[in-house]
Design goal:
Length: 270
């Protein structure tokens, strides 16, 4: 089954979700109805986006068309949520609202979109290269065929985890904020390499390959993180010397707190 899809807010993440679906011909550009806020974004998408989707500026006369679409992907920033006003959706029981907004609860979504069954989705930026992680919390009873359709939107470019809504904040902290934390770690370790005299590019390449290799090793050998740590930490050696510094600087605690903080921030949007 296929539906017309309205995309309310066609920014970075919405494009990351929709583009692979168009590339793989899972949906047709003519079935996508997008909404943006500014004239600049409207022109930019009209002139530069690879696929000829229907695109409108919010509050324009034509933008009313988006409310005819049975499936709506809500992908504005949480701060922009209050500006959106549901407009003339048909009153059938078939309308679906899929929100990717950080934090905004199913209860809040259902109040704002009373003629819709609401679903909350959390996805992350590696979805652009087909390696995303997507958490889905289903709202009210959603028929199997509609659930399958929503899964189809995400399963090509991410692994899907069906979760209860309470776990979405911590899922978001780990998976959505996580890439920024990892990028910062890569940058800092590379600066360590730079301090030892390596060129920036080489240092970064070494760090990224080291991280990839470590993850593959852990997975392939089915090792726990402590087993791996013990394997490469010899008495009086270089690694224990490095780990001692990290313990002194409370890196472990800083990382734990960073995830808790991101999760709490997500809860504040409720
Ligand atoms: N970035 C991430 O890594 C990430 C990951 C997971 C989830 N998310 C969630 O995804 C959502 C969008 O993030 P993003 O990074 O894609 O933001 P973004 O690039 O800024 O996109 C926001 C889009 O919403 C449009 N918009 C703003 N006000 C609007 C209105 N009143 N009516 C219709 N459209 C409007 C903007 O149009 P203009 O360009 O004209 O302003 C833009 O197209 C956020 O809620 C975030 O929590 C983000």
């Amino acid at each position: 089954m296929t539906y017309k899809i309205a995309v309310i807010g066609f920014g970075n993440i919405a494009k990351a979700i929709i583009t692979p679906l168009l590339e793989k011909k899972i949906i047709n550009p003519s079935d996508i109805y997008c909404l943006v806020n500014s004239k600049k974004s409207l022109e930019n998408i009209k002139n530069n986006y690879k696929y000829k989707v229907n695109i409108f500026q919010a509050n324009s006369k034509e933008s009313k068309l988006i409310w005819d679409c049975q499936v709506k992907l809500l992908s504005v920033k949480p701060q922009q949520f209050n500006v959106i006003i549901e407009g003339n959706t048909n009153k059938t029981n078939e309308n679906l609202l899929v929100s990717i907004l950080a934090g905004v609860s199913l209860e809040k979504l259902s109040k704002k979109f009373p003629n819709h069954k609401c679903v909350r989705v959390v996805t992350n930026i590696p979805i652009i290269v087909g390696q995303g992680l997507t958490g889905i919390a289903w709202g009210a009873e959603i028929p199997k065929n509609q659930k399958q359709f929503i899964m189809k939107l995400f399963e090509n470019s991410s692994q899907i985890y069906e979760l209860i809504e309470d776990y979405l904040d911590i899922f978001l902290a780990l998976t959505s904020s996580g890439p920024a934390i990892i990028a910062l770690i890569i940058e800092a370790l590379s600066d360590g390499g730079l301090s030892g005299g390596l060129q920036k590019k080489l240092a970064e390449e070494l760090v990224m390959e080291m991280i990839l290799g470590t993850i593959n090793f852990l997975k392939e050998k089915n090792l726990t993180t402590s087993e791996l740590k013990n394997m490469v930490t010899s008495p009086g050696g270089t690694t224990i010397s490095a780990l001692r510094v990290l313990e002194k600087k409370s890196l472990r605690s800083a990382l734990i707190e960073s995830i808790v903080s991101a999760s709490n921030r997500s809860k504040e949007f409720r």
